[in-house]
Design brief:
The complex is a heterotrimer of chains A (about 300), B (about 270) and C (about 90). Chain A is built from 12 helices and 3 strands. In chain A, strands 2-3 form a two-stranded antiparallel ribbon. In chain A, helix 3 packs antiparallel against helix 9. The radius of gyration of chain A is 24 Å and the shape is globular. Chain A starts with a strand and ends with a helix. Chain B has a single domain, classed as MetI-like (MetI-like fold, Orthogonal Bundle), CATH 1.10.3720. In chain B, helix 7 packs antiparallel against helix 10. Chain C is mainly α. Chain C is built from 3 helices and no strands. The longest helix of chain C has 23 residues. In chain C, about 15% of the residues are buried. The model of chain C has no long low-confidence stretch (mean pLDDT about 85). The chains are: A mainly alpha (about 300), B mainly alpha (about 270), C mainly alpha (about 90). Chains in contact: A-B, A-C, B-C. Strand 1 of chain A pairs parallel with strand 1 of chain B.
Chain lengths: ~300, ~270, ~90
């Protein structure tokens, strides 16, 4: 790379390091400490790896993990293509561009538990628009009793909530492409698909990295929206990992087991995200190497 | 491609976009509709719009301190967090985008891992930590807690913006005799103005919408609006109108922020060298 | 600090990690790493291999604790050997 080596750059990073370490390292250490002990009020007993053994063999948590993966990959598979599509459809300039931008961003600015309340109101059979209409059409729609209804509703809610983020990032990425590229493509009589594949998509790589990683991480930690909308039910059909954890940590006050669960949870996210990150960085490196070999200055 | 076909496809594009916008706005409209009705009307009849505009719920929220202070509290810690995050993230992002130093890549990934830490993991230690340093139930506690994910995000986005500024800009400035701080403030920051605008938008957004941490770190003095809203559901039923009005009001500050940064977003950013 | 409920094993654990990081930094200052391709599918620096080693070791421990009755000391031993292999040939 063309970066200069400069060890004093550490000083510029130091404030970030201190602040984030205060918020991240101290609590993380505490969680590790909790995870090996049985804590009752003021006294703590060392129990070794017992909580980990319990957590890993807890079938409820295993089921929540499977649901979590199913949920995260479903919404990624829908939101990323949909977001790119919306970004391609958005007007490029003028007041329409501003108006569409502002309207599309709205769901992102709603606090997460309000998103839950909003969709709860929207889908209720008695006072909700969606719930009422679907029932009028003759389908017995009920998210508190039917697991499939609850699942579909949560996925639609998440699409409503988060597709704007993908669309916003992609829109900005698309807007950064100089007009000259499109003129060249028009002169070459490139098809729409070819223009997308060879001009627009490559420019979107960096913003898509952010979009995919952010969407994966946030969907993997989803808590407030399903908690308010379905409470994790019916049964435990929409109980995701964060909610299981919050139940253990807050409602049941099981510090040790919930700490062990936290660490396992974090390790899973860490591994998946690292694989994502490395794969994407490697793809970019290879691309850069190809370009470097092709167009040596 | 003929002009007719182009007009046809542009018509199709418009309708598809309109369809998506309709989907986006429908739940929000419904919330607005609820907020303008009385509770009797909400539970009594099903109608697509309110019979008469009823601003009772809004008046109640905007005149009762125990309600509107929730918005003030939320905005206070959000702006504190934005200030802290952007100030420390700017130099750090510059360092990551311009220099190589020992551990730079690992440090960057470590920062990203903090975006991945589920807040639920940290709830109890956070409570204990802020309680023991005497910051419990203050705005700064929430602002600092939100730094956990907002600083890494700011560094990540700003690094992308800075990397798209050619290095020659820096070098020319040094040749012209600028010191580093003068260059950074007078030349570099104006060049990435859009980037700062976009970053501030994301910082606002993620701090404004997060509630799990904000709720556990506050009791009465710094309670966010999201926590106050739970008051609407009581043993005698849910006060749908007030809940809806409070919900609608949570969107307003964000809309103002988007309005200010809309041109920066529309200007486009590719984040880094593509 | 009392609320952090430190115990000897966790203190040792963090001590080892901190020493490891410090050691890696000193090693890096003394002789800077060269990115190379080993048996791992990507080319890595020394620090990358160290991180991958720690993460996989954590998983080795989890598997042993959760799904077998093998002693944790054995998992620790396997992890150390694995770490050495990774640092040398990874």
């Amino acid at each position: 790379m063309d970066k200069r080596e400069y060890q004093w750059a550490w000083l510029m990073v130091l404030p970030v390091l201190v602040l984030v370490a205060f918020s991240a390292v101290i609590p993380l250490m505490t969680v590790v400490n909790y995870s090996l002990q049985d804590i009752l009020g003021r006294s703590a007993f060392f129990v070794g790896a017992e909580w980990f053994e319990e957590t890993l063999n807890n079938s409820r948590l295993q089921a929540a993990l499977m649901r979590q993966f199913a949920f995260s990959f479903t919404i990624l598979a829908i939101q990323i293509p949909l977001g790119i599509g919306i970004a391609l459809l958005m007007p490029k300039r003028g007041w329409q561009a501003s108006a569409v931008l502002i309207l599309i961003t709205m769901p992102l600015l709603v606090p997460w538990n309000v998103v839950g309340s909003m969709w709860q109101i929207f889908t209720r059979g008695d006072i909700g628009l969606a719930g009422f209409i679907i029932r009028e059409l003759g389908y017995d729609y009920n998210i508190t009793a039917n697991a499939v209804d609850a699942w579909v509703t949560i996925i639609i809610m998440d699409i409503w909530h988060w597709t704007p983020l993908v669309a916003l990032l992609c829109y900005s990425g698309l807007r950064s492409i100089p007009e000259a590229y499109f003129q060249a493509a028009r002169i070459d009589r490139a098809s729409k698909w070819a223009t997308f594949r060879y001009i627009q998509l490559p420019k979107l790589t960096n913003v898509l990295v952010i979009a995919v990683l952010l969407r994966f991480m946030h969907s993997f930690m989803i808590y407030a929206e399903p908690f308010v909308l379905t409470g994790g039910g019916p049964g435990s059909s929409t109980t995701f990992l964060s909610q299981s954890l919050a139940t253990m940590a807050i409602a049941q006050q099981d510090l040790g087991p919930s700490a062990a669960f936290s660490i396992t949870y974090f390790l899973i996210i860490l591994a998946v995200s690292y694989v994502f990150y490395v794969t994407i960085m490697n793809m970019q490196k290879e691309k850069a190497a190809q370009q470097g070999a092709g167009g040596a200055e | 491609m003929s002009a007719g076909a182009s007009r046809e496809s542009s018509g199709l594009r418009r309708s598809l976009l309109a369809l998506y916008l309709f989907f986006t706005l429908l739940p929000i409209y419904w919330l607005l509709n609820m907020s303008l009705k009385t509770n009797q009307e909400i539970l009594g009849t099903f109608s697509l719009w309110p019979e008469a505009l009823n601003l009772h719920a809004y008046l109640r929220i905007l005149t009762d301190p125990s309600w509107y202070m929730g918005y003030v509290n939320s905005l206070t810690y959000v702006f504190m967090n934005m200030t802290i995050s952007i100030l420390v993230a700017l130099p750090a992002a510059y360092a990551f985008s311009r220099f190589r130093f020992i551990g730079d890549k690992h440090l960057f990934f470590w920062l990203l891992t903090n975006l991945m830490a589920p807040p639920a993991v940290f709830l109890l230690p956070y409570f204990q930590l802020y309680y023991s340093v005497g910051l419990f139930d203050t705005h700064i506690a929430v602002a600092l807690a939100h730094c956990l994910f907002n600083i890494p995000l700011a560094v990540w986005i700003l690094e992308g913006f800075m990397s798209s500024v050619p290095k020659e800009v820096d070098e020319t400035a040094y040749i012209d005799g600028y010191s580093f701080p003068a260059f950074f403030v007078k030349i570099f920051i104006p060049m990435i103005r859009s980037g700062i605008g976009v970053t501030l938008f994301f910082l606002f957004m993620f701090s404004w919408v997060e509630l799990l941490l904000a709720r556990i770190l506050t009791a009465t003095e710094a309670q966010p609006i999201g926590a106050i809203m739970t008051r609407t559901s009581t043993a005698s039923g849910v006060d749908w109108a007030t809940l809806s009005a409070a919900g609608i009001l949570t969107i307003v500050p964000g809309l103002l922020v988007v309005y200010f940064v809309r041109n920066h977003i529309a200007k486009g950013f590719a984040l880094g060298r593509t | 600090m009392e609320w952090m409920v430190w115990t000897l094993p966790t203190a040792l654990f963090f001590g080892v990690i901190a020493t490891g990081l410090l050691g890696m930094t000193i090693w890096e200052v003394v002789s800077p790493t060269i990115e190379r391709k080993g048996f791992l599918p990507i080319s890595t620096t020394r620090g990358d291999r160290f991180f991958i080693g720690l993460l996989t070791s954590a998983y080795i421990h989890l598997v042993v604790v959760g799904f077998t009755d093998i002693s944790l000391w054995l998992a620790l031993g396997v992890s150390i050997v694995w770490m050495a292999i990774l640092m040398r040939w990874g």
